[in-house]
Amino acid sequence: MRHRTLGSLRVSAIGLGAMPLSIEGRPDEARALATVHAALDSGVTLLDTADSYHLPGAEPGHNELLLARALAAYGGDTDGVLVATKGGRGRPADGSWTVDGDPRRLKSAAEASLRRLGVEAIGLYQLHKPDAAVPFEESVGALRELLDEGKIRLAGVSNTDADQIRAAHRILGDRLVSVQNRYSPAVRDSEPELRLCTELGLAFLPWSPLGGISRSSLDGPSQSADARPGAFRAVARARGVSPQRVALAWLLARSPAVIPIPGASRPETIRDSAAAADLVLSGQELQRLDGAVVSAG
């Protein structure tokens, strides 16, 4: 497993997005724990979670508690594992995703996450999404207070634009270490944020990094007139690997700041994703994939 830098830490180049283990369609606990353990066995040292990763209206913090149990039950060394969690969103009974950036509630949420994870300080705590009803600087100020109080070690922001990243950087300085935005072969509208993270030395954690890499979009011609049909599928076939592995390798090649966090709900899925860290694409392959347009299918 190759590694990348997140703040002062060295973490695996591929992380695990643990969300699928706790929301609708989640596996049973035995398979969920086996999935986390397979990630650790594969060299993954970055686990991404959030207090809102649970079924609608029930079991707040389910995913954090699950990861805590998985780490406690793991037979190997977990000292180098970084658990990154997030606060500022909720999941009421109607299944929606709410946003709450009130500083007092963010601090309370962080303290609850701290208890669920069973650690002295949260390794990486991230503002899940800016709240349009709360000044962004006030929400980030709550992260600064949590840092000053020693309840979190590092801070990050998610679903932010370039101006918000700059604002967070001004407030937090080098204690801001990461940005988590949606980015994938099919969704590339966070290119400006990725460039800024590379410039500032911040880790860029793409969520939903495999968005668009579905069987329908890869195994048949794209409906887009300017697409190069099946580029990811074709490279995968030539390499004898999965299209998902090619997609993650392509993401890693975009910038040294990129640390993808693909979701998984089966051990074999995260093993395949972790193997992308060792797949180095050629310049010709990258040029072909850079020009591809992937339909969500």
Overview of the structural elements:
- Helix 1 crosses helix 2, helix 1 packs parallel to helix 10 and helix 8 packs across helix 9.
- The protein has a seven-stranded parallel beta sheet with strand order 3-4-5-8-9-10-11, with helices on one face.
- The protein has eleven helices and eleven strands.
- It is α/β, with parallel strands linked by helices.
- A hairpin with a 7-residue loop joins strand 6 and strand 7.
- The longest helix has 15 residues.
- The chain is globular, with a radius of gyration of 19 Å.
Name a few traits of the molecule.
297 residues; alpha/beta; seven-stranded parallel beta sheet; 11 helices; 14% strand
Q: What kind of assembly state do the chains in view correspond to?
A: single chain
What is the structural class? alpha/beta
Strand percentage = 5-15%
Dominant shape:
globular
Fraction of residues in helix? 25-40%
* Mean pLDDT rating: 92
- Annotation field: number of helices: 11
Radius of gyration: 19 Å
Low-pLDDT runs of 5+ residues are 215-229
Quantity of strands, as a count: 11
- The end-to-end distance, rounded to whole angstroms, is 31 Å
Major beta sheet, strand line-up: 3-4-5-8-9-10-11
Largest sheet: 7 strands, parallel
Order of helices and strands: EEEHEHEEEHEHEHEHEHHHHH
